[in-house]
Amino acid sequence: MEQPLLADAKIYPAGEGAFLSLTDMLAYFEKMGAMRVSDLHIKIGTQPAYRIDGELVRLKGGIVTAPVAEGLIYPLLGPKNIDALKRDSAVDCSYKYGSLQFRINAFLDNDGLTAAIRALGNEIPVPEKIGFPNSCWQDIVRRKQGLCLFTGITGAGKSTTIASLIQRINENRACRIITLEDPIEYIYPQRNSMISQRELGRDVDTFSHGLRSMMREDPDVIFVGEMRDAETVSLVLSAAETGHLVFSTLHTRDVTGTLTRILDFFPSERQDEVRNQLSLGLRYIVCQKLLPRKDGNGRLVAMEILNSNYAVANLIRKGKLEQIYSQMQVKTKNQPDEKMITFERHLAILVKRGVVDLLEAQKWASDMKSFQDALKTDPEVE
Fold first, then answer.
1. Is residue 135 part of a domain?
2. Is 66 a member of any domain?
3. Whether 100 and 181 share a structural domain
4. How far is CA 276 from CA 148, 195, 284, 316, 366, in A?
5. Does one domain contain both 150 and 289?
6. Is residue 49 a part of any domain in this protein?
7. Exposed end of the chain (fewer CB within 10 Å): N or C?
8. What gap in Å lies between CA 30 and CA 103, rounded to an integer?
């Protein structure tokens, strides 16, 4: 009978005769904080590497071998997920250590077993601390229906922002909240709301299957971890139209790219229908980027925000997506029918506040001329 693999077995040669266990490696996240140290990568043929303030930093120990990789990664997975990994060559799951929840993706590459381990703090930040440039989040948590999309590249903090808003709803409203996640990242306590969290592969097969059954479960607030296919997008749009507040994510870089990506899920003959659904159901798109702080102490968020007011909804319905950026440039007042901002304007605000370096902001700006124009004026949100 094989001995079970233990997370506290000291098997990685860290140099100078020292050996580290998996728990030693995870403890570093707690020591430094998940906002600074976001990921740990373990791969055969190289040293383990942490992502610290957005940059990969390798440990100075030995090269990971196949037995060491198994000894470090398998305790995170457990027998059922190990079987799934061997069968499907990849598996997603979650793991709790200390005060932190970790999202695990283990997979096989050319050299063998590999894992990407992402830290998620159990403490859900309050919306006031997320870094919103205006009070749009207050509108979102008060809404009873509509689609609110949070977009950005992997690791941009989308899940954390959504968790913050759902937790505020949980604290202030008595409603039914159901989530579909892959995997579950933040655990919500039962407060004023009743919350059910379902994980793909454990509680439900696919997002679309989960959404279909959810419509019979009387939800008020729905969180769908990611819109990955046309069927899921259609179900999400329908749920937003039929009286539910729906949160979801997409891996897109900006607001107009998000709208284009949604339409690209569908054949051309269906795009008029989808544009009409979007114009009726969409409420907000919040696109995020995480930038290094000027003082080197962690990262902070820059946002692009679209509020789907009457004018924006009309542009979406007519397919005039190229005109939406100009709406975000001018509808910046902190009042209900505006509350929009471009990335370039928010970057300029952060530079003028002295919290982001100018050269760093230039790297993240999508439209350099708009960024330079924002710097020349007073870019603070009114």
1. yes
2. yes
3. no
4. 16, 31, 16, 8, 28
5. yes
6. yes
7. N
8. 15
CA distance 242 to 239: 5
Distances in whole angstroms, Cα of residue 250 to Cα of each of 15, 65, 156, 196, 281 = 41, 35, 11, 22, 16
Q: What residue ranges in 225-269 does DSSP mark as E strands? A: 245-250
Residue carrying the six token digits 């696109």 = 287
- Tell me which residue of 308, 301, 340 sits closest to 161, measured CA to CA: 301
pTM of the model: 0.82
Kindly state whether residues 110 and 248 are assigned to the same domain. Answer: no
**Same domain (yes/no): 137, 65:** no
Q: Which residue among 121, 147, 170 closes a domain? A: 121
Contacts with 36 (C-beta within 8 Å, 6 or more apart), sequence order? 52, 53, 297, 298, 299
Q: Do 178 and 286 belong together in one domain? A: yes
* Residue 4, domain member (yes or no): no
pLDDT tens digit sequence for 65-122: 999 999 999 999 988 889 999 999 999 888 888 878 888 999 999 999 999 999 876 7
pLDDT at 48 over 50: yes
Q: Which residue among 121, 152, 179 closes a domain?
A: 121
CA distances 332 to 231, 286, 340, 381, Å, are 34, 14, 5, 6
Average pLDDT, the chain: 92
How far apart, in Å, are the Cα atoms of 362 and each of 43, 122, 325, 354, 357? 33, 33, 19, 14, 9
Q: Running DSSP on this structure, what letter comes out for residue 321?
A: G
Query: Residues 175, 250, 118, CA angle at the centre, nearest 5°?
Result: 85
Q: In this structure, are residues 179 and 195 in contact, taking their beta carbons and an 8 Å threshold?
A: yes
Structure tokens at 316: 């979406």
Q: What is the mean pLDDT of residues 225-232?
A: 94
Q: Return the amino acid letter for 59.
A: L
Q: Which residues pair with 305 in a beta bridge?
A: 286, 341
Counting the structural domains of the chain, the total is: 2
Range of the domain at 238: 127-376
Q: What are the beta bridge partners of residue 94?
A: 103
- Cα 18 from Cα 139, distance rounded (Å): 53
What residues are paired with 316 via a beta bridge? none
Task: Indicate if 322 and 243 belong to the same structural domain.
Answer: yes
